[in-house]
Amino acid sequence: MKKYSVMVCIVIINIILQATIIKEISIGGISPDLLIITTVSFSLLFGRVKGSFLGLAVGLLRDIFYLNIIGFYALIYVYCGYLTGSLDNNFHKDSLVIPTIIIAICDLAKGLFVYIITYLLRGRTDIGYYFIRIIIPEVVYTTLLAVILYRFYYYLHNKMKIWSRKEASKI
Amino acid sequence: MKKQSNPLTKYLLLGLTVMCLLLIFFTNRSKQNVSLAEKGISSIIIPMQKGVNALSDWIKEQIHFVTHIRQLDTMNEALEEEVAKLRYENKMLQQDKIELDRLRGLYQLDKKYPEYPKIGAQVMGEDPGNWNWYRIFLIDKGTKDGLMDNMIVMAGNGLVGYIIEVGPNYSKVKSIIDDTSNVSAKILRTSDLCNVNGGNLYTEKGLLKVDYIDNDANIVVGDEVVTSHLGDIYPPGIMIGTIKEIKEDNSKLVKYAILEPVVDFKHLEQVLVINQVWKEKQ
Fold first, then answer.
1. B126:A23 CB<8 A
2. What pairs with residue B195 in β-bridges?
3. Which of B90, B107, B196, B263 is the one with CA 20 to 30 A from B52?
4. Which residues of B touch A23 (CB under 8 A)?
């Protein structure tokens, strides 16, 4: 139970931080995507079921808050959560390199998807500009932040393991 | 977590995808009213967001105070000098204004801008959501202050954008520099119609693009551009900006221009909302 309340807290904190502090530390109008870091880290650590539900929660909140179309970002984050969660157990969770690379790839895929759906379909064809000016800087910034945040989530994951063991031993 | 052979996980992705697609299908239209769920969530998160914003502002202010304490003295002196100068100038201007009023009364001059009822609002979060792609911001007035969808937002005498969504204590404003924005405009001097577009390519430099200019239109750099009478939601005669550069398409068939808006979109703090809906957007 404690585990789930922690997850709900993390979702809410993420949304608020993204709207406030993260905006303050943006460089050249580009801010990192906290939500994709959280979604991918959780689904790597806790598996694809929890990962996809976390992605759904985070994505829906983002949509409800900021966009006119509800479900667009939810869809992206659900797929990020599910697909990366399927890689579970195939790598050492305490390594930092692989999760960081996976987060970068996810953010890149997200950027391309957003470009194709909301820009290319409206006839904005200069992909080079959007790629260099928006997508790549966001990926770089997000990846840098991911290095720090994944550490934190890994620590949290270990704590949660201890809690669930304690709860199991009580029963 | 071990790989689960639970049949539920098999259909998890499918179920969630269908759910998201249904949501997209049902919400993909311009919203006239904010739904109940949205109101609930925003009434929790908006105050929290305000709190965090206030805290970070306070910290920034303290840091700024400490780092600038030495300059304050010299700055104060310079400012006092300026105040004295400005007081004198102000008096002169007041005299001029009285004269101007008298002359206006005599000639009953047409005003350049028609008057619309306005209320002031504070910009709360700049571009909070779709952070890297769009230029949408929040202001701190909502339905409680009588705001509605499609009301026009200005700053000073220049056009900022319009309200796309209203909550009880906040509204979302889409600015004219947003990539999807499109304003029907005209060149004030020649009355030629044109179209003012935002675009990420230009927004970065704080500029706008003017499209669909008539080939015979005799425009020059420095011409003023205002909203036209053909606009969907914008009332006519509101200043947008001045023309900075006139360009030709590669094929030399189409003319377009670069427009410098009168509003400083980078440092937007106070805005005015025109308190009446001009036309319902279809």
1. yes
2. B184, B211
3. B263
4. 125-128, 131
